[in-house]
Design a protein that fits this description.
single chain; about 190 residues; mainly alpha; 11 helices; 3 strands; about 65% helix
Amino acid sequence: HGGRIFMKIRNILSLGVFEAHGLMVSVAGSKIPTRHARSCGWQTRHDMTVELNNPDYTSGVAAFEAKNFSMAMQFLYPLAEAGDADAQHRVAIMCQNGLGVVRNDERALQMMQAAAEQGHAIAQHGLGFMYLEGECVEKDPAMAAEWFRKAADQGLAGSITTLAMMYEEGNGVEKDPEEARRLYAAAGFDL
């Protein structure tokens, strides 16, 4: 059953596209309760009060959520270059997927890593997947596990679950079924 859960979580969290709508959060097109999103460690727009005070950030996020990626890049790229972790994460997604710009693996990795190094949990998760899948960077499951661990330490359920699967399979870490069970339980799965 772990494989199905893994794919759903990967599909939702690898993009990290989310926004708040009252009691529901839209994550990569899937609606989930806001309280569940927050319990997974995801931030919603309503939690980002400092960034909301920046009109360029607000306009960039609005354009990103409206899938107007060219305009989002115009607003968010200067903020990303100035060191804003959420802007870096969103720019990385656009560069990685060729959204509003020509696909640029090097820039995607640079921006995702910059956001991850600042402690942005979803960027840490995204960087973990880059290393796990060999996307934008050479495949390195051990490095992936390190980044998933950092996001998991912040309570990101998707990273905790991914780490559990890695321990279950011995992928990037030494196989450890007991640690896998502990992590699955920490992510809220009843085994």
